[in-house]
Amino acid sequence: MKEVGMTKQLHLQSAGLIHTTAGYTNEITKTVNPSFLVVLLLIAALIQVIACINFMNLSTARASRRAKEVGVRKVIGAGRKDLVGQFLGESLLLSLAGVLVALPLLALAMPYLNQITQTDVQLSLFADYRLWAMLAGLVMVTGLVAGSYPAFYLSAFQAIKVIKGNFINHISVADLRRSLVVFQFVLSIVLITGIIVIYSQLNYLKSKDLGFEKDQKLIFSFQSNEALSKLPAFMNDLRELAEVKAVSNADNYPGQFAVLRNRYLYLAGGNAATAPSAETMRTDAYYAKTLGIQLVSGRDFRLQDSSKVLVNETLCTKLGLDPATAAGRRLYAGDEEMYEIAGVIKDFNYNSLREKVKPLVLMHEPDGSRLPNLIVATNSRNYQAMLEKVETLWQKNFPGLPFEYAFLDSEVQAQYETEITLSRIINSFTLVAILISSLGLFGLAAFSVEQRTKEMGVRKVLGASVFHLTTLLSKDFLGLVVVAVVIATPVSWWATNQWLQNFAYKTAISWWMFAVAGLIAIFIALLTISFQTIKAAMANPVKSLRTE
């Protein structure tokens, strides 16, 4: 390699990184993007924060209920430190109770969790002491975060005032509650927007023209030399079927892991040191025809071709060639290797749409029996009947070998398994986040209605309608959600735009995505508070005012 000016560098990789795409483009097995794991942890943290906010909101809202308790305790000698310890202790006990309830629920939900995450996590993981240490830490952090502000706020009440009945809920606390409600809905709207953008991107990936035909294609893979030796006979039998349009074999097909071979190709007068790297596939003469890959110029492979190649438009550009006139030019890959361009093929996305199309060369392999992947283009509407015929031919040529096949469109779709899994997870977790946010809003609405019961009675006696009272009670909460929409929109745009940077080909972020997310949030908030507000507006004013 040194003689022709080529260099290669080898790197060591930690065994723990084999299962992640931590800077390596090719791995032997299926990998998980580390950013995917970060997103899961972030979503879990957001849900935990929303739950903590609910606790803080409801605790401070109900402060008047506990004001006299605090006053009595202070009168009989309790210090502020004792009261803070009491309220934090209550919060920690609630957090612990939450974990004790969550664990059996987790055991019941594990099959569903494994289904949406496409994993096989077992409950045996609880045998690891580190998990219990993490749970203990979670209980402590949640209890302290959720209970800290209510504890210091409640413990600050002045004993004389609250015992005399002069307790006044501070405006600053009401402002804090409103801010926390806004923050809750900002998080929920960001998650809703995430769902919309992910689905839009997945639909874009499904509908984008990849430059080849992926539908109605069967894939067979062979590993043993014995099976490969019988492959030509099997291919000839397949071509006899009326349902089969074309058959090809190659060492790679779209949707597989990244192409593992590459060549440094250059024109006459060039050298390997400055040559562009081209990913290489070995194919028979029918590859482009079977996959419906279009020719830009020149011709396709012929059975008798030797040292002929097909190159894509990107490689032509890298070499400084015009794709329309590149056919017939000679390429070199070293002092003794020379190839002639038979034709130029249109760029096609043989890898996932996360990457732009790279320079590619198809090298003709006259002895196709050495190529392990078989691609069969079909035109059948009755797949069951066709597969039965194919299986008969399989048993004839490969007796004792399991009949295994795949559909090319499914293989291509599997490249986006991480995104599909992420969409399922965000769907489920967003529902949880919205439910928790709605519960908090429901509690605050109930408390607000209770505080304004006599006001509603007076207004109704003076002639206010049910619609007017419902609007009056609802507008404050809906105003908070509208503020959340305004804040969440730029945050959502930034977050989804960052996620879309993982794709070389991506959908456009449009205004309607944020509008839909905002309308969903407003509808959920309205639905949540409507029960309490309509109930209060329809209440008999006599009952509301009878103690006056």
What is the N-to-C succession of helices and strands? HHHHHHEHHEEEHEEHEEEEHEHHHHHH
**Sheet with most strands:** 7 strands, mixed
Report the structural category: alpha+beta
N-C termini distance: 98 Å
The average pLDDT value, as a whole number, equals 83
Proportion of helical residues: 55-70%
CA-based gyration radius: 33 Å
Spans of 5+ residues with little confidence (pLDDT < 50)? none
- Choose one word for the global shape: elongated
Total helices: the number is: 17
The share of residues in extended strands comes to 5-15%
The strand count comes to: 11
Brief write-up:
With about 550 residues, the chain is α+β, with helices and mostly antiparallel strands. The protein has 17 helices and eleven strands.
What would you say this structure looks like, in words?
This protein is α+β, with helices and mostly antiparallel strands and 548 residues long. The chain has a domain at 217-379. Helices cover 56% and strands 10% of the residues. It contains 17 helices and eleven strands. The strands form two sheets. Strands 3, 4, 5, 6, 7, 8 and 9 form a seven-stranded mixed sheet that branches. Strand 7 (330-332) and strand 8 form a beta hairpin. The longest helix is centred in the first third of the chain and has 38 residues, at 80-117. It is elongated. The termini are far apart. The relative contact order is 0.12. The model has no long low-confidence stretch (mean pLDDT 83).
